[in-house]
Specification:
Growth Hormone, Chain: A, 0% strand, disordered C terminus, MFS transporter, transmembrane, membrane, cell membrane
């Protein structure tokens, strides 16, 4: 797997630097996430309720903060904003070693989550500033692939620290994560030749245009408020629904296997490994299926249908024997992985193409609110409604996936249509000063 990733790696330059940065950060994230719950409960001494309350409050604050940070990135440039966010994370994660109470935990977890939620959109905006359309999708795909490898590697390293089961061991997890962001900030700082602010975004937008999506970019408003574009907001929400595949994989599937099927509990690990390996080896390939706006829109529909089939495969596993249950569950994981990767590639393309160049980071931040909402309500939805209703719950989830994929296509086309109409109206009604200019042709 490592050899194949190396062969598919971007050539030297900004793309490879970004990939190394993402790999470093994912190792730190895997390191911390693997032991975070034990850190909070056994290291700090918090109750599970206090931890869940703090994480929920931090998630809400992270959602609120992500859009202003995106607007700031549009002003100062994504590179500067990303370096600042990584330095913020270095400080915030280092402060975990000082946490000995719920109040201190709440302050630190809110500080870390604000930066964690804002960073992906700013990073995507930076990728768009650096590369044209084909290289942008390929870089994002490879980033996701190496991040999966990095998360697994970080979790493996964390196992050694967790075996000590002491506060000092847990502190090393937080400090290790902080150190990974030092590396990330340094690597991003090394990337040169990026203009700051709106000029850089506009320059990248011009270089990224292809024959097909030129009209889409031209129809975008030069200054817009994403909160006033209802189809774009709807697209963000529908993207969050499709992103429930992560909640199914990490929350729903383990509970379903362990408590409601005859499959061995060890199948949970097999499922996660299967998902990680396929994603790491094939993510860059999926981006080829979404390298134009038309393909990406179609990809959202297909992803919804594939995720629906995955849910339909997982649900009946509760009513069959061990062997059949294993087959159904693994087939469901395979479909879930296909849907997940196709959805990710399509969402990258759509969100970027529908984000005006002058406000790109802000629009990408608003688009990311759908997934932030998923993080808030997804676990409760999957555990309470889907699993609580048994097989019928999985059927309902399948219908939700299929409807979200179809509705995503309608929402994306609505955004394009409204902007094209607005652009046409602007062309028909030129500014008053243009009409009154002496150089204007006489109507006679």
């Amino acid at each position: 797997m490592i050899a194949k990733l190396r062969a598919a790696a971007p050539s030297c330059g900004p793309a490879r630097t970004l990939v190394l940065s993402g790999f470093s950060g994912s190792i730190g994230t895997g390191l911390f996430l693997a032991g975070s719950m034990l850190f909070f409960t056994r290291g700090v001494g918090l109750s599970p309720f206090q931890v869940s309350l703090g994480l929920s409050l931090a998630a809400v604050l992270g959602m609120i903060a992500s859009v202003p940070v995106g607007s700031l990135a549009d002003r100062v440039g994504p590179r500067r904003a990303l370096i600042a966010l990584h330095i913020w994370r270095v400080v915030a994660y280092s402060l975990y070693v000082t946490v000995h109470s719920f109040a201190a935990f709440l302050v630190v977890v809110c500080a870390t989550t604000m930066a964690d939620k804002a960073s992906p959109s700013v990073n995507q905006a930076m990728v768009g500033t650096l590369f044209d359309q084909q290289e942008r999708l390929r870089t994002m795909g490879f980033l996701r692939a190496v991040q999966n490898v990095g998360l697994s590697l970080g979790a493996l390293i964390a196992a050694f620290a967790l075996s000590w089961d002491s506060r000092s061991a847990y502190d090393t997890l937080a400090l290790g994560n902080a150190a990974s962001y030092v590396v990330m900030a340094f690597l991003i700082w090394r990337i040169r030749g990026i203009d700051s602010g709106r000029a850089a975004s506009a320059k990248a937008a011009v270089s990224a245009k292809t024959t097909e999506n030129y009209a889409v970019e031209a129809a975008q408003p030069t200054a817009a408020n994403p909160f006033k574009e209802l189809p774009f907001l709807a697209l963000s929400g529908l993207n969050g629904v499709l992103a429930l595949h992560d909640t199914v994989l990490f929350v729903g599937l383990p509970l379903w296997i362990a408590q409601f099927t005859r499959a061995p509990v060890s199948l949970v690990s097999v499922a996660l490994i299967l998902n990680t390996v396929i994603t790491a080896l094939s993510q860059t390939w999926w981006t080829k299926l979404a390298d134009t706006m038309a393909k990406a829109v179609r990809g959202m529909v297909i992803a919804g249908l594939v995720l629906a089939l995955a849910a339909m495969s997982v649900g009946p596993a509760a009513d069959v024997g061990t062997g059949t249950a294993c087959v159904l569950l693994l087939f469901g994981v395979l479909l879930l992985t296909v849907g997940e990767n196709l959805h990710a590639a399509s969402a990258w393309a759509i969100s970027f193409e529908l984000s005006p160049a002058a406000s790109r980071a802000r629009y990408l931040s608003v688009f990311g609110l759908g997934q932030s909402t998923r993080d808030l309500v997804g676990p409760a939805l999957i555990t309470t409604v889907v699993i609580g209703m048994g097989t019928w719950g999985w059927i309902g989830l399948a219908a939700l996936f299929a409807l979200a994929g179809a509705a995503s296509r309608r929402a994306a086309l609505s955004v394009e249509r409204i902007r094209q109409m607005r652009s046409a109206q602007t062309a028909m009604d030129p500014p008053a000063e243009r009409m009154q200019s002496p150089a204007a042709p006489s109507p006679l």
